[in-house]
Amino acid sequence: MAVRGATLLAAILLVALCAGLPADAAIGVNWGTLSSHRAPPGVVVDLMRANRISKVKLFDADPGVLRALAGSGIQVMVGVTNGELASIAGSQAAADAWVAQNVSRYVGRGVVDIRYIAVGNEPFLTSYQGQFQSYIIPAMTNIQQSLVKANLASYVKQVVPCNADAYESASVPSQGVFRTELTQIMTQLAAFLSSSGAPFVVNIYPFLSLYQNSDFPQDYAFFEGSTHPLVDGPNVYYNAFDGNFDTLVSALGKIGYGNLPIAIGEIGWPTEGAPSANLTAARAFNQGLINRITSSKGTPLRPGVPPADVYLFSLLDEEQKSILPGNFERHWGIFSFDGQAKYPLNLGLGNSVLKNAKEVPYLPSRWCVANPARNLDSVSDHMKLACSMADCTTLYYGGSCYGIGQKGNVSYAFNSYYQQQKQDPKSCDFDGLGMITYLDPSMGECRFLVGVDDSKSSAVASCGSGYCGFCCGLWVLAFWVFMYLRLMGSA
User: Mind telling me which residue stretches traverse the membrane in this protein (predicted)?
Assistant: First the structure.
């Protein structure tokens, strides 16, 4: 047993040394892919590695993304989408097929370090009116059986990312309770998580509290202290994160699971799309959050106990997300769509600032703009068409291109559509109102983008580059040593 433990320790140290990633790093990222300008997955994986990001949460199980993560040393959470819940809940065979297709094939062959399966995404949202509620526990039960069959149950854990509206409080965190209609299923979920050693995953967004409530104290959303602290008996709360977190702690305590570990599945701040969404605020919030987490200070109800993991939302901007909640939905990334850092940020993982993506396969440096020789009186329908297909949210109040004038607005809209259409010359016609230029029309902070050629496979694949080729091979060896020892230990 001593030899086995020493071998396992050596393997883990070898992985951490080669990957350049701290083994116990708590800060991860969400990687969403709702974009028409998707950088090749290999480029994104290398971006995470360059920034020493060791944990990533996915919203599905995209094969291209998972292949790119093979051998990277990055711990992965894959997602069962809400649309898949019914079939998996109703059929053990469907669960077996999902695990085989999206977990076993990568852990067994591609050596992707899948640690968690997210069963649904915020399935208890009030707006869903309970449509997914009955599927969760049956789906988890079936997936667990599938993991047992695949000899992965002790390594891959299931979680359910919950929105913070699953619990509520009359006034202070100590009065936190789950919504009445969720009490039974939350008790079942907490029991499942406790028995398997998995955390309760919650998404917390102080930005939304500020955005949706004009009376919400702005300084309470951040981490520098507040002139409007919340007093709860002997505990005083100076920021919304601590108050929200401890409301969940109280709610879990009332169903008998007050010591269940908690992980933050999503948290962040957008950079535009609303008056309170800007680069300065995003940097202040995310840096304050990271400093808070890495200090291990904890919260009043869990002093000295930081969350199990924290996944920033998000890694990249996604310009195809719905803007029904607000224009800010497309601008949560700490990086722009092409992996360029928006602002200085120290993730607490070894780099003092963010490093940009390299070898991004951009389309040629050309743009579509309004033809200066044409009258723009009839341009409104063309702009509506362009903006219905492409992203124009930066043109509105709270956006980086707000106030650039009519010709600027038209040019921005035309170019957004042109780039989305991969620079098809026909997409810049607009009945003669558009023209292609080779001069960058960007103005100040308003950036006219050049799209990404996502038809090209990345020349920088995580395990194919000289950057990590040798160490990826060692990671593969160490991973299999680890898996073998786990199986031997359970035999």
Answer: 464-485
The residues annotated as belonging to the active site are 122, 266
Task: Write out the two tokens for 166.
Answer: 């699953």
Task: DSSP letter for 21, please.
Answer: -
Residue % of the chain over a pLDDT of 70: 87
CA-derived radius of gyration, the chain: 24
Mean pLDDT of 135-152: 98
3-state secondary structure of 225: coil
- The predicted pLDDT at position 170 comes to 84
Report d(CA 345, CA 289) in Å as an integer.
11
Cis peptide bond N-terminal to 314, omega within 30: yes
How many residues are given for the chain? Answer: 491
CATH topology (fold) of 2-359+459-490: TIM Barrel (3.20.20)
In contact, 170 and 120? CB cutoff 8 Å: no
Instruction: Give 4's pLDDT tier (boundaries 50, 70, 90).
Output: very low
Query: Any idea what DSSP says for residue 302?
Result: E
Global pTM value: 0.89
Label residue 167 exposed, middle or buried (CB < 10 Å: 0-12, 13-18, 19+).
buried
At residue 454, the pLDDT reads: 81
Which two structure tokens, joined as six digits, stand for 167?
A: 């619990």
How do the domains of the chain map onto residue ranges?
2-359+459-490, 367-437
- Taking the C-alpha atoms of residue 301 and residue 243, their distance in angstroms, rounded to an integer, is 10
Cα-based distances in Å from 349 to 50, 243, 283, 353, 466:
10, 26, 16, 10, 22
- Of 338, 288, 328, nearest in space to 312 by CA: 288
Torsion of CA 179, 184, 186, 189, to 10 degrees: -170
